[in-house]
Structure formats: structure tokens, C-alpha cells
Amino acid sequence: MRPLLRLFLRFCKGSSLWNLMNLNNILSKTHGRIFLKQQNGLVMKDILKMVNWSHMRMSDMKMQLGTSRSIAEEMPGSSSEGSSEAISKTTAENNQMSVHEVKWEKQPHWASGDLSRCLEGKKATDIRLASVAVGTSAFGGLGKLSIKGGKGENCTKAVSDLGLSAIGISCRGLKCLLLWDCPNIGDQGLISIGNGCSLLEKLDLVKCPQLGNGALEAIARGCPLLSTLSLDSCVMIGSIGLEAVGKHCVSLRSLSVSKCPAIRDEGIVAVVQNCKFLRVLKLEKVAITDGGLALVGKYCNSLIKLILSELEDISEEGFGALGSSTGLENIKFLCITSCQGVSNNSLSVMGGVCKNLKAFSLVDSQKVTDEGLEAFAMLCGSLEVLRLERCQNISGSGLRSPSDNTLGGLKELHLNKCYGLLDSCLSSISFLVSCFSIKSISITHCEGVGNQSLEKIGFSCPSLENLDLSGLFGVSDTGILAFLQGSGLHLLTVNLTGCKNLTDEAVCAIASHSGSNLQSLYLEGCEKITDKSLRAIAEKCSVLQDLDLSKCKITDTGMLAILATRGPTLKTLSLSGCEYITEECLHVIQKVCESLFALNLKGCTKLSINALEFFKSQLWRCDILSA
Questions:
Q1: Which residues have CB under 8 Å from 527's CB, separation 6+?
Q2: Which range among 64-68, 179-183, 455-459, 484-488 shows the weakest confidence by mean pLDDT?
Q3: The Cα angle at residue 55 between residues 51 and 60, in degrees rounded to 5
Q4: How many CB atoms within 10 Å of residue 116?
Q5: Which among 329, 324, 376, 327 has a CA at the least distance from the CA of 348?
Q6: Which tens digit of pLDDT belongs to each residue from 393-407?
Q7: Do the bridges between strand 280-284 and strand 305-309 make them parallel or antiparallel, or are there none, so unpaired?
Q8: What mean pLDDT value characterizes the chain?
């Protein structure tokens, strides 16, 4: 090991710099502002300068550029005379030390904070963060920073307060900060951001267990322009921190709190009471009570989007109080997930207040039946998007519209895993009689839905553009043909994933009816589909861009027909589990699929490893999945 490298590692060992062994890449690619001309290996002096600069103000940094100091003086925490002499001697002996040329150029006022950087996994270290702080300061300023850790990473090597402090000191124009899975970052790092980054507008904290109220208080006091705050799985942040946000960040427009058990009514109420411009609110797995939720409804007069998920302490009375308040009059998007306090009564009360509601999503609700859904739909006359998922006590009759046709403006209907849905009820939905406005219908994994419903939908929705029937085992060719008799001319996307009973007859009919407009077709798991369908697609579907043929009984013959006519326009293609596809297809894909950016070849057993590796090297622009 070279003497200079040994000395540098001796000084760094045991400190926060010891985890940064990949020194060759630390000072690379600083966007033309810091130039390194290496002649013989690592430049230890320059690395130490960078670490020192990252904790200086810009004015101090410029002063240091013209001075000549020993490496020991530039190394934070190294003041031993013996060490200084040793390092100076080693530096003198290294007569091939490369030249470090630094150019600082004056940046226009609009360039402050226009750069974005993302450090992920093993690259998220203190020295890399220090290099970002120095490099971006010379090139207009860092505006957005994302630090993403991840499971399996060594916690001792992750970004700590030291690295984040460098950002707080050097990057005055920072506007967006995202910290995900950062176990070593504590209050001190966020305090540095609060003290130095007064222009911060967005803060996203996910799985940062060491962050507490002190960090959030510093951000609140130092960043008055904060408009978006997201807290997820930060167990030490409580109501005190949120109260500070409510007091100082009165311009806050979006608040998301998820899985933070220390946050209770006081913190949430402080925000909704003081932040008069709050537009988006998400509460998931927090200890809010009926009284707190009632105050949310009272003070959130400007709210347009409300997401409530897994609120175990909220009873039917709490949701009733929320619906009785006038604060929800302007709300346009409402999503309620796994809240057992929601019932027919509370849902109908909320429907009476949410006159301007455009989109409603109800997930995993066991107490809501057809009666409650019908009352809610009747009161929400402006509803355009309706999504029901895992609502087992809804059979479909609750979707009936009264005589005034209140659901006549519905544009999207999504029903997923509603095992209580009955084909007979769904096919008799009266609101579909005049649903010319509906563009998208998704009925997925609903065991009771089959051909009868499809026939009704086809005649009632002539303007339908997107149809998703994933996981409907009861749908066969009969249902698809009946649907196409009334609709199908405007279809852009058809998803028939998992419809095992479909044959070539259904796919050929879709190609004939909708081929001129069809852009995406998904047939994964349709085991009865053969090359006959592919020939029809090749002939009729002139604008096809996305095609999924996973686990279909197709061969090279059918695929070559597709590639000959539609290959140049295809953007995504999945052949996963197609056992009869050979290397002949790979050669044609390589030649004709000029726009392809995603290809799935997983489970194609007749493709050898060598052929796949060569194919990947040739089609480098495409994301290929084969393992």
C-alpha cells in the first residue's frame, strides 16, 4: 500500500470517514466546476480539502483556495505535530502528486438550487454527501436531494449527521429533501438543515428512527416556506414536533402522517387549525381519536383531498362527526381504508356534506352494505370516480341510481376483490342505462361476475376506452362477444389477465372491433390463446404499443407475424412463460423493435443463457428481464 494512502486510512480509521473506502469515485463528475488531473493514483490532499470545504460557508471556501496548508491542518481533528511532520514528509516524497485546479464561476441569480441528486444504498455515505455539497455549490446550487438507504445495508456505513450537516452548511438553496431508511441520521442533521436551508419547501422522512421532535422543531422554525411534509415510520416524532410546524409553517399545503405512534390529536389539530391553506391530508395508523377527527372536519375548510387509513381508535361516532362538519364542503377526493368505524349511517352523513366530491375510494369496509352505498351515491351528485375494494357486503344493487340519474356523470368505476358482487345485480344496474360519460371500467378478481354483466356494460357504455377484467374466471368468449356488440369501437386498453376460459375467438373479435384504436392488450395467463390470435393482432391492431402474451400457447410463427408488422411500434412486450419461443425470435426483435424499452423473457426455457447474454449486449437500450 502506498505510504500516503496508509497515512490517510490511519487518520480516518475509527471515524465517520472509515466507511468510505471507494476513494477513486468520490471526487468524480462535479459537472465541470472542479477539475482533477490525476497522474499517479489517489489524491489524498484533495479528498481532505473536499471534506473540509463541505463544512465551510462559500465565502470561507473561496478564501481557502488561495492558501497553502499542510494536510494535517486541513484534516479535521488532526493537530499532532508528529503527524504533521510525517504527512509533510510523505507529501514531499510523492513528487508525482497530481494538480488540483478549482474554478469558481459566478452563477446567475436564477441558478440557485436547480440541481438534483440521489444517493442510494451503498452510495449513500458521508463523503459522497460531502462531495455533493461542494460540487453542487460550484454549479448553481443543490435544489433537490434524495437519500435512500435500504434493507441489508450496513448501518455503520450509512449517512449520518456529519454528512447531512455538510448539506445544511453548503446548500443554501435546497428546496426538497427526501430521507428514506436513514438509521444514522438524528436530530443534529435536521437541525443543520433547519439552520441553513431556509428555502426548504418539501420534506419527506421515511423510516428515520433516530429523528425526534427537536429535528422537526428546527425545520419548522428555520423553514417558513415549508409546503409539503410527509412523516412515515418515524417513531420518535410526536405531537410536539407537529405543533411547531402548525405554529411556524402557516403556508403548509400538504401533510402526510403514517405509522407514527407518538403523534396524537394535539399535533394534528395544531396543523389543521393554523395552516389555513392545507389542501391535502393523509392520516394512517396514528393515534387520533373521535374528538380529533371532529376538529379536523371543523377546521379543514380548504381541504380538497383526505385520506384516512387504519384508524383503529375512530368509531362510528367519529366518522359521523367528521361528516357533520362543514369543513368537507370543498373536498374533491376522499379515500377511506380499513377503518372499521365506517358504517352505512356515517357514510350517508358524509355524502350529505361532500357536495363537490369527484372521487371516492372505499377499501376493506365490512360494515358498509348496498344500502349505505346507494345513499352515499345519491347524495354525491358530482361523483366521477368510484372505487370499491374488499367490500364483502356489497352485492352490486347499491350502485343503482335513483330516477334523477345522479351517477350519470360517472367516468371511472373500479371494483376489486368484492367477493359479494353478483352477476345478476351488476347486470341490472340502472345507472348504466345512460352512462355515455364513462370511460374506464375495472372489475377485477370478483368471483361472482361473469358474462351477464359484460353484455350489460357493452350496451350501456358505448364510449368506453379502458376495460380491465383481470382475474375473472367466469368470463368466456360469450361475454366478450356480447360486450363487443354494443361497445368496443373506442377501446384503447384491454386487460384480460387471468381469464383462462378465453380462446382465439374472443381475441380475434377484439382485434377486428378495436384494432384501429387499441394501444395496449394484456393476455397473461390466457392459456388457450394460440398463434391464430397473434395473426389477427398483426393484421388489425395498427397502433399497438404494449402487448403481454405471458403463459400463452404461442410459437415463433405467431410472434414473427407480430414482429413483422408491429415490431417497430412496440414499446413493451412480455413473453414470460412462453415455452415454445426460440432464439429465432430474438434475432428478429433485435432487428425490428426500434422503440422497445421493456421486454420480459422470464421462463422461456428454449432460450439458452449464452443467447440471452448476447441479446442483452446487442439490445442495451432495452430493459430485459430473463432471470
A1: 500, 551, 552, 553
A2: 64-68
A3: 110
A4: 12
A5: 376
A6: 988 776 654 444 456
A7: parallel
A8: 80
pLDDT at 4 over 70: no
30 contacts 134 by C-beta, under 8 angstroms: yes
CATH 1.10.150.20, domain 491-627, yes or no:
no
Where are any strands of DSSP class E within 158-250?
176-180, 202-206, 228-232
The predicted-structure confidence for 570-623, as pLDDT tens digits, reads as follows 999 999 999 999 999 999 999 999 999 999 999 999 999 999 999 999 888 899
Cell of 620: 442495451
- Across 260-272, b (16+ Cβ under 10 Å) vs e yields bebbbbebbbbbb
Q: What distance in Å separates the CA atoms of residue 389 and residue 386, rounded to the nearest whole number?
A: 10
Q: Contact 537/559 with Cβ under 8 angstroms? A: no
Give yes or no for a contact between 400 and 371, defined as CB atoms under 8 angstroms apart: no
- Three-state SS for 400-444 is CCCCCCCCCCCCEEEEECCCCCCHHHHHCCHHHHHCCCCCEEEEE
Report how far residue 389's alpha carbon sits from residue 368's, in angstroms, rounded to the nearest whole number. Answer: 12
Percentage of the chain surpassing pLDDT 70? 77
Cβ atoms of 599 and 624 closer than 8 Å: yes
Provide, rounded to the nearest whole percent, the portion of the chain with pLDDT above 90.
56
As a whole number of angstroms, the distance between CA 127 and CA 358 comes to 48
CA angle 67, 71, 73 (to 5 degrees): 70
**For the chain, how are helix, strand and coil distributed in percent, rounded to 5?**
40, 15, 45
Q: Is the dihedral of CA 118, 213, 289, 225 positive or negative?
A: negative
Sign of CA dihedral 415, 417, 421, 424: positive
In the chain, where are the structural domains located?
3-105, 491-627
Element of type H or E holding 89: helix 81-93
pLDDT at 43 over 60: no
Minimal CA–CA distance to 546: which of 574, 515, 520?
520
Distance CA 201, CA 184 (A): 23
Element (DSSP H or E) covering residue 444: strand 440-444
- Per-residue pLDDT tens digits for 255-283: 999 999 999 999 999 999 999 999 999 99
**Which one of 81-95, 220-234, 288-302 scores highest in mean pLDDT?**
220-234
Taking residue 416's Cβ as centre, other Cβ atoms within 10 Å add up to: 18
Which pLDDT belongs to residue 621? 86
Nearest to 218 by CA among 253, 168, 173, 179: 168
